[in-house]
Design goal:
globular, six-stranded antiparallel beta sheet, 19% strand, alpha+beta
Length: 299
């Protein structure tokens, strides 16, 4: 995977590195100085992976199964770190930082989905040849797994800020070890918005391979079946929907609930796992343990 640094306050620049994708980079944050308003990206190649709870994980919940094969047909670039408060202010303007735990290198938090889309709109308005967006849930988990086993529970503190070590607050990004593809804080620090709405993976019959899946779009489309199939196995509504097509997982109602991944500084270890999914309230949710990271892709 290739790490690319991009500045949004100055003319766009890029530098490349070549970490070995087969093992984590050593130690915590890189020792090179970085202007705080730059966003760095890691190139993620297309590929296949098994999405959902791994066999033998006793903390699995019903929304993490069945484990299923996913194919992502397009590569993308994902933020090496969660978007920081300095990066938020560089794009959205001074005094725009709503975060509960203040710090220029801490992840921005307490931003709802509309505000995140406003941030992304400003990036896209630069017309720099890229599209900026939130990751899909499948893209997030693919990048988080990085082709490697999940960190052992006893080593979680090496990779994540969570309830056992966070002192009930977020921390500057990049202080913990990265995953095998060089991404930091995929577990812990703040939970991360993804673009999908919540649904059971098998709300519609799963194909042998789910291709570029997204959560339900405008009713019953999309989802674990990669856009294939809308009804339940017996001709009834898909799992988690009522007869009117309303998404009912955890009380989601007609529009469904937004999804967050990765666990946060206030979550205990059983909830800071690569397959853990979080969804409640709505797209206007603004809390101190939820932030986001950005996808960049060529049009």
């Amino acid at each position: 995977m290739i790490s690319i640094r991009v500045g949004f306050l100055v003319a766009l620049t890029a530098v490349a590195q070549s970490p070995n994708p087969s093992k984590p980079a050593p130690g915590g944050a890189p020792n090179r100085a970085k202007p705080p308003a730059q966003i760095e990206f890691v190139k993620i190649a297309p590929g296949e992976f098994m999405m959902g709870c791994v066999p033998g994980d006793m903390d699995c919940l019903e929304d993490e199964v069945p484990r299923h094969k996913v194919q992502l047909t397009k590569g993308f670039e994902l933020g090496e770190y969660e978007v920081t408060q300095a990066q938020w202010e560089a794009v959205m303007g001074p005094d725009s930082n709503p975060s509960k735990t203040k710090g220029p290198k801490n992840p921005v938090d307490s931003v709802n989905k509309a505000e995140i889309h406003a941030f992304l709109d400003k990036l896209n308005a630069k017309n720099d040849g890229y599209k900026y967006r939130l990751p899909t849930e499948a893209e997030w988990e693919y990048a988080a797994r990085a082709g490697a086993p999940e960190p052992p529970r006893v080593s979680l503190g090496d990779y994540a800020w969570f309830a056992d070590n966070s002192d009930d607050e977020s921390h500057p990004v990049g202080l913990k070890k990265p995953n095998a593809w060089g991404l930091h804080d995929m577990l812990g620090n703040v939970r991360e918005w993804v673009d999908d709405r919540a649904a059971y993976y098998d709300y519609a019959p799963l194909p042998e391979v789910s291709v570029d899946p997204k959560g339900p779009q405008g009713g019953r489309g999309g989802g674990g079946g990669g856009g294939r199939g809308r009804g339940g196995a017996n001709g009834g509504p898909p799992k988690g929907f009522d007869e009117k097509g309303r998404l009912l997982i955890n009380g989601g109602g007609a529009e469904g609930l937004p999804l967050f991944r990765g666990g946060g500084w206030d979550n205990f270890a059983p909830y800071v796992r690569l397959s853990s999914r979080y969804y409640y309230y709505g797209t206007d949710l603004k809390v101190g343990d939820i932030g986001f990271r950005v996808v960049r892709e060529a049009p």
